Each structure stands twice: as C-alpha cells, then as structure tokens.
UniProtKB/TrEMBL annotation:
This is Anticodon-binding domain-containing protein. Coiled coil: none annotated. Residues 75-143 form the Anticodon-binding domain. One of its GO terms (biological process) is glycyl-tRNA aminoacylation. Gene3D superfamilies: Anticodon-binding domain, Bira Bifunctional Protein, Domain 2. InterPro entries: aa-tRNA-synth_II/BPL/LPL, Anticodon-bd, Anticodon-bd_dom_sf, Gly-tRNA_synthase/POLG2. It comes from marine sediment metagenome. GO terms for molecular function: glycine-tRNA ligase activity. GO terms for cellular component: cytoplasm.
Length: 143
C-alpha cells in the first residue's frame, strides 16, 4: 500500500486539493494509493527463494533446490554408477529414450555422490541410476 504521501505532496506543490469531501462526516479525506505490481522477475525470485534450502551433513553445507517437476529446467538425470564401459551403453540407451520426452541430463563425471549433489543443486527432480544389476535385470534406481 502506498499511503497518501504522493497525493499530499502533489497537492502541496500544485496548490490544488486532491482530497475527497465526505458529506456524512463533513471532513476532507485524502485517499490512500494502492500500487500493485507484478512481474516475471518477482515471481521467479519468489519461486527460487521458496525452493532454496541448505543441508549440513558431516559439517559440510550443501545447497538443495526443491523445484516442482513442472518448472524444473532439467526433469531427469541419467547417472551410471561408475564410468565402467559395461554400464555406458545401457545408460546411453536410457538417456536417449528419456530425452525424447523430457529435458534430460547425462553425467558420469566424478563419484555418484557428487553427481547426486550437483543434480540437487540445480533442482533436478529425478535421477535414474544405472548399476551393475541393471545389466542383468533391466531395472534402474530412481531417486
């Protein structure tokens, strides 16, 4: 709410009264100004502030971004458990299939824990992990 400051100042500088005369109370009233505003920037900031979280584990702070799946830029990440050549073909196959439907990320750099953490930081709602059992039973872990 903007209050009556703007109208009072304008009335002083212009010399014109900007008040409303109330017949019942017999007094002049300067109305308050309501200044609503909206914009993409404010909405985006509100969403990011709401989704932002920090977690402390083993004395180390980590950033988490809890985005709703409908607004997360990357919907799913495919993460092979390791960079072993035996896991890569199945992981790439799953990645290729998923990217036909959703914005998908593929990551095999560093440890699986660091890769999960990276996805948590950018708000990826789902991670599909391909492990050695996946080669046999064609099942994956979804986190």
């Amino acid at each position: 709410m903007g209050g009556d400051f703007d109208l009072v100042q304008h009335a002083k500088s212009s010399g014109k009264g900007l008040s409303y005369y109330d017949e019942e109370t017999k007094e002049h009233i300067v109305p308050y100004i309501i200044e609503p505003s909206a914009g993409v920037e404010r909405t985006a900031l509100a969403v990011l502030c709401d989704a932002y979280d920090e977690d402390v584990a083993d004395g180390e702070a980590r950033v988490l971004l809890h985005l709703h799946p409908s607004i997360a830029p990357i919907k799913v990440a495919v993460l092979p458990l390791s960079r072993k050549e035996t896991l890569t073909p199945l992981a790439k196959e799953v990645y290729t299939e998923l990217r036909q439907q959703w914005m998908t990320s593929y990551d095999e750099a560093q440890s699986i824990g660091r890769r999960y953490r990276r996805q948590d930081e950018i708000g990826t709602p789902f991670c599909v992990t391909i492990d050695f059992e996946s080669l046999e039973d064609k099942q994956v872990t979804i986190r």
